[in-house]
Amino acid sequence: MTAMRDTTSILPLSVEGLTFEAGGKRLLDGVGFALARGGVTALIGPNGSGKSLTLRMCHGLMRPSAGHVGWAVADGIVGGLKRHAMVFQKPVMLRRSARANILHALAAIGLSRSDRNARCVAALERFGMTDLATRPARLMSGGEQQRLAIARAWAMAPEVLFLDEPTSQLDPGATRQVEEMLLALKAEGVTLVMASHDMGQVRRLADRVLFLNRGGLVEDAPTSAFFETPASAEARAFVAGDLVW
Predict the structure, then answer these.
(1) What are the b/e assignments for 41-70, b being 16+ CB within 10 Å?
(2) Has residue 239 got a pLDDT over 50?
(3) pLDDT tens for each residue of 21-52
(4) How far, in Å, CA of 207 to CA of 42, rounded?
(5) How many angstroms separate the CA atoms of 66 and 120, rounded?
(6) What is the pTM of this model?
(7) Is the pLDDT score of 229 beyond 80?
(8) Which long-range contacts (CB under 8 A, 24 or more apart) does 50-54 make?
(9) CATH: 3.30.390.10, 3.30.950.30, 3.40.50.300, 3.90.550.10. Which one for 11-239?
(10) 31: nearest Cα among 55, 67, 60
(11) Where are the domains of the chain?
(12) 51-77: pLDDT as tens digits
């Protein structure tokens, strides 16, 4: 599957002054950071801190009120294909089989029938889901649906994968399976950017932490440094479990 990727990189990603206002309120305020190739970056912070907004704007699902999201190539598109994908907290599944859900996504980006079939087979095999190929996606368990969502995204060969609370509704066993998938993607060179409330998960998976609070980026640090020696009062309170929105 890695051979199917164009070698042109859409990274680095540059986020500058990202701001979003709605209903007279500023929900995101001047967030800026750069994203290089590789690793797992975790966006953390209290509810309403701007994590999901940041992910959605980076992926192009929402437009900022001000600021800029810039890929190394325009819109992160190479050869007509968007090279970044997103997996949501609750994945959207069509009323079709697991296999058909993957094929539909691949058809939507304009791949030929033969390429769609090859990538679908590869995705199901890669993540141990071949036995679930004909099962109606909406009748699958929450963990199976999330695994399918990640397999579907992987089939589109993204260089960057955004994930918004990918395990928040899963039990420990399903969470472990999803985390194993993410570590496998990281090992393959996919750059992961993940919002998470699970600090144990962040410690296990992330190389870098972006800590947001009240719509602003408060800290940008390696994961170990953030948890061991948070630099700001807000981060220290958050790590201690005392920061309330």
Answers:
(1) bbbbbbeebbbbbbbbbbbeebebeebebe
(2) yes
(3) 999 999 999 999 999 999 999 999 999 999 99
(4) 8
(5) 39
(6) 0.94
(7) yes
(8) 50/20, 50/212, 50/215, 50/216, 51/164, 51/195, 51/212, 52/164, 52/165, 52/195, 53/20, 53/27, 53/28, 54/15, 54/18, 54/28, 54/195, 54/212
(9) 3.40.50.300
(10) 67
(11) 11-239
(12) 999 999 999 999 999 999 999 999 999
Structure tokens that stand for 234 in this block: 């807000």
Residues 6+ apart with CB under 8 A from 166: 87, 89, 146, 150, 178, 182, 194, 196
